[in-house]
Design goal:
single chain, 189 residues, three-stranded mixed sheet, 1 helix
Length: 189
């Protein structure tokens, strides 16, 4: 015959396992990264002013690893010809290289990158709220977005904060303010 105290402890242990099991399932779902291909274009808002530069973010996740590519356009400045132009800038980070972390929080992928260069250190956080479609299922629609970065500039001796403001609509036609300055083959004569 089982002792009543032993039965109570066993029942309590089963009850705790039953109660904690959904929490463990939710935690495991948060840890698992979906396969994803998410793109969004943003403008930078600093000191209340919205910049004209365009920054296209592409977050690609597959098999638990992610890469983030950023393409910057329309940051016009004087070119060698004297006319305004911009040089497209591409930046890439990845979880495999260790300079990007991505976590799944419900239907949000939060990407964080910490970059250090001669000018200081910056932290960028991007939150992609995603929709899933296709077969196999893939996170491939950005349905909400927020993000920004903080840079501690050793050169300027100040902290700069920038908010990313996304373009609204699945696709946008935007005329650029100046020409693109693109590299080619430099043929010496």
């Amino acid at each position: 015959m089982l002792k009543p105290d032993l039965v109570k402890r066993a029942a309590l242990a089963l009850l705790m396992l039953w109660w904690l099991a959904p929490l463990n399932a939710v935690h495991a779902a948060e840890l698992r990264l979906p396969n994803a291909s998410l793109e969004v274009t943003v403008r930078q808002k600093q000191d209340g002013e919205l910049g004209k530069g365009l920054h296209l973010f592409h977050l690609l996740c597959w098999g638990g690893e992610c890469a983030l590519t950023a393409l910057s356009l329309n940051q016009c400045g004087p070119a060698g010809s004297g006319k305004p132009a911009f040089f497209p800038k591409v930046q890439r980070t990845s979880t495999a290289e260790g300079n990007l972390t991505v976590k799944n929080i419900g239907s949000v992928l939060e990407a964080q990158q910490i970059m250090t260069d001669i000018g200081g250190e910056s932290t960028t956080v991007l939150r992609f709220t995603y929709g899933v479609s296709g077969s196999p299922a893939m996170a491939n629609r950005v349905i909400a977005f927020s993000g920004g970065y903080v840079k501690n500039s050793t050169i300027l001796r100040r902290v700069t904060t920038v908010e990313y403001v996304p373009l609204i609509g699945a696709f946008n036609e935007i005329a650029l303010d100046c020409a693109a300055l693109l590299p080619g083959v430099d043929i010496q004569r």
